[in-house]
Amino acid sequence: MSARVLSQIWAIAFILLGIVAFGLRYQARHEVREGLQDSLWRLSYDIQFEVDSPAAEIRVGLPDQSSSAAIIEVEEKTHINLNAEEYTSPLNKNRELILTTQLTGNYQVGAEFEIRLKPRKSWDEQNEVADLSSTAKSRFLRSDSTIDTAGANVREVMQQIPRGDLTDSELVQQLFDFCSLSFKPGKSEEGFDAVGYALANHQATPLGRARSMVTLCRAYRIPARLVAGFEVRQSKSATPHVWVEAYYGHHWVPFDPTYGHARQMPYNYLPIRRDGEEIVRGEGIKDLIAKYTILRLPPPANVLQAEVRRPSQVLDLTRLPVEMHEVMSLMLLLPLGALITAIFRNIIGLRTLGTFAPALLAMSFIYAELATGIVILVAVLTAGYFGRIMLDRLHLLMVPRSSIVLTMIILLIVFGVSLIDYADPLSGVRAVLLPLVILTTLIERYFVTTEEDGMAFAMQLVVGTAVVAACCYLILGWNEIGDLLLIYPELHFFTIAAFIWIGRYSGYRLVELWRFRDMVK
Amino acid sequence: MDNNSQRFWAWPDELKRRGILGINQRNLDIILECNPRGFYPRVDNKLLTKEICQANGIQVPETYFIIKEHSECHRFLDLVGDRTEFVVKPSSGAAGRGIVVVAGRLGNNFFTSSGRLIEWTDLRHHLSTIISGLYSLGGQADSVIVERRIVSHPLLKSIAVEGTPDIRVILYRGVPVMAMIRLPTKMSGGRANLHQGAIAAAIELNTGRTYGGVCRDRAISFHPDTSFPIAGIELPNWKDVLEGSMKLSDALEMGYVGIDFVVDADTGPVVLEANARPGLAIQLAHREGILPRLKFVDSIPVSDRTGENRWNVIESIATKSSDFWRV
After folding, report:
1. What is the CA radius of gyration of chain A?
2. From the list B1, B23, B197, which residue is nearest A521 (CB)?
3. Where do the Transglutaminase-like domain residues begin and end (chain A) (predicted)?
4. Alpha carbon of B196: minimum distance to chain A alpha carbons (Å)
5. Is the pLDDT confidence value at A283 over 80?
6. Who among B12, B125, B280 is closest to A395 (CB)?
7. What distance separates the 2 farthest-apart alpha carbons in chain B?
8. Are A508 and B7 an interchain contact pair (Cβ–Cβ within 8 Å)?
9. Which of A117, A193, B37, B283 has a CA positioned 20 to 30 A from the CA of residue B193?
């Protein structure tokens, strides 16, 4: 098999390896994050009633999948004499369990739901467009015993809030403000569930507020409905909560006049029944007692045991102590520096002093701070340059000569840092560990190149080195890249694939297009 | 054709059509394929190259002595004796690095061919620098070769401003495919180094006559210092150069190699060094890409391009019109 084909196979293998490794880790991290952010709850129903009519029918509202809640597990315990049937109403999309029986007597029904609440809602889910037919519209404008749109108190409010040129949205906001702010809390036993009573006395229960808002909306010919559900929180005896949805602009828009939430409900609002105010309702029964429990469940075991030692953690670099992160991500950036170097050398064709020197130089600038780094670099290069000129006359052997330059550079740095600190103790200057040995070799190489290939060529190399170093600095200095590589070091499989491709690139280098330009006349 | 090009670059497919070999393709498709890594020391180490040349009856500059250790440096003056002309070069230097040509001497003061004074201490320092490996590939410890200074053939001397012109022949699978002569200029400081501004002219393989020309990657037709035309010079001992190059290429067992000659006034062509990674400027000197010539050699059956049959191949390469080489 030719090297070219083999290289392609290897490169593709590395790409695939990268995709698989990245995918697995992304998936695992996603699961853990979900486990930490989402919450698990158990909602239990305990319903007791007595059937006293042979045509009894009990409708139990069930929680539904929604944008913020996922129903994980459902367990229903019904009585042996009850026929159970699940039903979803087409208009309101309510899920119900319809229980029927011909046998009178006492019954007990239970149901349990495991619910995962997600704090995030996706935008399109919460803005689901709903289209109302004229029959549906008339249904959501209807007046009945609890929602009497023709009551005297309603007309009074309508005089206070004239429709005028208000948009639907503005009007609903005013009605919401009215129901939310102008009522004092009232008690159910004193009759403050009723709209007329609430409007007359400016006092209302939560149900009274919601009913009032729906009544007023409908009075203004804006379709509206009650929503019964739960505010999910730890509770041994949870009470259902009622809020409002008004229809305008092709959307059902939620409002909670009791707690003041508008347009977007908290993610822990779990709607059960739309256009209704009870969770359970029935015909032909009496003594209905419905108890609800909401219990917070622990997150999945893998989330709680994240810190348990296991060999696979070796692959997770973020687990290392924080102070190691900087060095680790810097090390992980090095291959990218090498990649940039390879691109410059083999594709662009820019020549530098030393192969990896520019990338290493850039890395040290990233690790240090740019201003200090540049000051020290300039000082080091100047000292190194003049030191080298002076030493040239001593005719020393190469290694000792370079070592003297290195020692001089180090002394200059230590005292330079000390000087900066003396001048401005608050400058927070920190010794920069530039790759000193590399700098020393760079200086040496510059001299040899100047002697052997001329000043012009040496300057070309210097400029090339500066360009590559600057490029590396700009790209690798991007914090997010280092962080990303620390989380997903397997991204370097792609880097290796890129190296293979560059390594097999036999096309012209960019500078050759310039170099050979005289050949195409 | 001279320095008045309006173009700032050429498109890749234009270069491809002209058969230009780029550095990446040279490294990947030619050098990696043709030159076994294990044979590199044969060209990288000049001592070894010299030995191979001598074993095959190819002329090289006479070696006076070799210095391998720092401790031997002090014996240099004894070893040189009363010679006034010699060349000091690193055994593993690349691109002519570290070579000092001593052309005159006053006691322990030496003078280079361009008249620069080198005191004994300077020279001694230079020797230890070479041994330290400053000029060697990869910085390995090196040895110093002290050899006879080649006196350029009078005809070549007349066209060189200063320094010694050298001839490079590039052989592909043992067949000379391109050749050029490199002429030092004032800009190059008397060295035949194209980086430093030396000029190069292409050589017709069958006649040894120069044509084309390049200086600092630009096409030129006249010597920048003397304004003499660089085309039309007939090189002396041309057949000997080709013969020597083919012999050495066979001995080196490398499929793609550049061999550098100088033509000595007395002994004729001698090999200076061989190079397993010859540069690409030779194409500029020819104003023609090398790739079609390599393909042409590949297209000839092996039996027709080995031994003495190579002269026919050289003849047909040289006599093909330039249109033949366009892809």
Report:
1. 37
2. B1
3. 198-259
4. 6
5. yes
6. B125
7. 60
8. no
9. B37
Residue B102 pLDDT exceeds 80:
yes
Nearest CA in chain B to A396: B125
Among B250, B276, B245, smallest CA distance to B261 is for B245
Residue B84: HSE in the Cβ half-sphere, 13 Å Cα cutoff: 4
Ordered structural domains, chain B, with CATH = 23-48+153-325 (3.30.470.20), 63-147 (3.30.1490)
Q: Is B37 exposed, middle or buried (0-12, 13-18, 19+ CB in 10 A)?
A: exposed
Task: Check if the beta carbon of residue A143 is closer than 8 Å to that of residue A150.
Answer: yes
Interchain proximity B284–A505, CB inside 8 Å: no
Distances (CA, A) of A300 to A32, A42, A319, B144: 9, 14, 20, 74
B24:A508 CB<8 A? yes
On whether ipTM exceeds 0.90, the answer is: no
Distance from CA of B172 to the nearest CA of A (A): 19
Spell out the long-range contacts of B256-260 with Cβ–Cβ below 8 A and sequence spacing 24 or more. Answer: B256/B30, B256/B31, B256/B34, B256/B35, B256/B170, B256/B171, B256/B172, B256/B173, B257/B35, B257/B43, B257/B170, B257/B171, B258/B168, B258/B169, B258/B170, B258/B171, B259/B168, B259/B169, B259/B171, B260/B166, B260/B167, B260/B168
Vertex A362, ends A357 and A364: CA angle to 5°? 95
Other Cβ atoms less than 10 A from the Cβ of A331: the count is: 15
CB atoms within 10 A of CB A364: 22
- Give the range among A103-112, A295-304, B151-160 with minimum mean pLDDT: B151-160
pLDDT at A126 over 90: no
Q: What is the mean pLDDT of chain A?
A: 85
Q: What is the percent of chain A where pLDDT is above 70?
A: 94
The three-state DSSP-derived secondary structure of B55-74 is: HCCCCCCCEEEEECCHHHHH
Say how far apart CA B65 and CA B62 lie, in whole Å. Answer: 9
Q: How far apart are CA A34 and CA B93, in angstroms?
A: 63
Average pLDDT over residues A393-402: 77
Query: Are A63 and A113 a contacting pair, CB within 8 Å?
Result: yes
A398–B70 CB contact, under 8 Å: no
Are the beta carbons of B233 and B180 closer than 8 angstroms? no
Say which of A504, A505, A517 has its CB closest to residue B5.
A517
Binned at pLDDT 50, 70 and 90, residue B3 comes out as very low
Contact A393/B at CB under 8 A = no
H or E element: which one contains B213? Answer: strand B210-215
Residue pair A322/A457 in contact (Cβ under 8 Å)? The answer is no
Q: What is the pLDDT of residues B203-227, one digit of tens each?
A: 988 888 888 888 888 888 888 888 8
Q: Which of B134, B283, B284, B294 to mutate to test the interface with A (most CBs of A within 10 A)?
A: B134
Q: Give yes or no for residue B240 having a pLDDT over 80.
A: yes
